[in-house]
Amino acid sequence: MAADLAAEAADGQQPPPARTSRTARTSAKGEQTRARLIAAARTLLAGEGFARFSTRNVAALCGISHGMCHYHFQDRTDLIVAVARDIGPEWIGPMEAAVDGPGSFSERAERVIGLLTQPEGPDLSRLHSALHWFALNDDRVRVAVDAEYRRWRECFVRLFQVLADEHGGAFDPAPPGTALAAAADGLAALQSLDSPVDPEVTVRVLVTGLATAAVRP
Fold this sequence. Notes:
Distance between the termini: 68 Å
Radius of gyration: 23 Å
Number of strands: 0
Low-confidence stretches: 1-10
């Protein structure tokens, strides 16, 4: 080890500083503070009056200084973007697992249908509404939200790619995949309003109809 350090010094390169236990503790504490701030931001965004959302209110909810909030997040937009990315694993992750898991198109479609028939939780629904509102008024938020929705739509495109492969690449999976994603978003909106629409029947008609239309000569 000493010989290696000496060789690096001889080459004019300084060895990286050792990571002390104190540095590790400080880093862990910083990550915990950042996670607390994101959790507080989620609470405020999912609540009433999200249009008055501010870093000062987030810091107050966390019980930390406003300056500490700005140490972790440059501004309000930075914090909102972090929330948009933080919720991705909750609504996109399960769909990615359902689509990318083993099985035929029919087997994967059944997993997808099962997920789409589950109503979105009220907090997550309100978060999406808040993020959409901010996206209309802030380009940085719009870019972040759009990236998450592209990832969401790509799940359905990959689902129909499986069907296309089963039929020798007979069609482009993007149109039916995008159509199903758009319909799923609309169904989620209806479910959030307690609409009497039967989600399972609706999703099955969508998936079956799109699949049939895609493979039809």
